[in-house]
Amino acid sequence: MTDIENLAADVQAFTSNVFLVTGDRTVLVDAGANFDVVARIESRIDTLDAVVLTHTHPDHVGNVDSVHTAFGVETWGFDPDQPSVDRELDGTVRLGDDDFTVLHTPGHKDDHVCLYAPSTRVCFAGDLVFAGGSFGRTDLEEGDRRTLVQSIDRLRETIDPDLAALHTGHGPSVTTDAYATVERAGQAARMG
């Protein structure tokens, strides 16, 4: 059975959430930054199969080099031309025991993706949407509000209305009314 744990849940530094997904294929979703993620990984598991990135902002990739050094793994991301990306992420990717659809969702950053497992109704949303119905910044380089709204709509149209869990790039995961959270984010992004 797939297990998902946020290794950055109690970190008091500028970092993204870092999800350790264990099962058939043990994967780190985003590597975070500015804390010793390797020690946290090593206290839980012996081997890691890959790092999968939702996007390549510094707070999501800052620890990639230390994870590479410690575990000798490749990093998968949407744009293989980015310095932190070894392999292109496209189609589906196995995280734990489940296959996740890779959904290109730019607007916050051009290489942003969400990962969705229809079989378990679990979504890794990166910085597209957050708990409470907020949404990712569009004032950074490559940010674009209209594109972000289109990406939120694409996510909403892809996920199941009974979405079980929405794991976001910052803040708490959403396990109650997760679909409504995506709907609220789309509404809020249209108003800004």
Helix-strand layout with pairing:
Layout: E1 3-6, E2 19-22, E3 27-29, H1 37-42, E4 50-52, H2 58-61, H3 64-71, E5 74-77, E6 87-88, E7 92-95, E8 98-104, E9 113-117, E10 122-126, H4 145-158, E11 165-168, H5 178-191
Parallel strand pairs: 3-4, 4-5, 5-6, 10-11
Antiparallel strand pairs: 1-2, 2-3, 7-8, 8-9, 9-10
Helix pairs in contact: 4-5
Domain Metallo-beta-lactamase: 15-170
InterPro entries: MBL_Glyoxalase_II, Metallo-B-lactamas, RibonucZ/Hydroxyglut_hydro
GO molecular function: hydrolase activity; metal ion binding
Written account of the structure:
The chain is of the alpha/beta class and about 190 residues long. It has one domain: Ribonuclease Z/Hydroxyacylglutathione hydrolase-like (Metallo-beta-lactamase, Chain A, 4-Layer Sandwich). The chain has 5 helices and 11 strands; from the N terminus they run βββαβααββββββαβα. It has helices at about 35-40, 60, 65-70, 145-160, 180-190; strands at about 5, 20, 25-30, 50, 75, 85-90, 90-95, 100-105, 115, 120-125, 165-170. The strands form 2 sheets. It has a 6-stranded mixed beta sheet, with helices on one face. A 5-stranded mixed beta sheet has the order 7-8-9-10-11. A hairpin with a 2-residue loop joins strand 7 and strand 8 (about 100-105). It comes from Haloplanus ruber. This is MBL fold metallo-hydrolase.
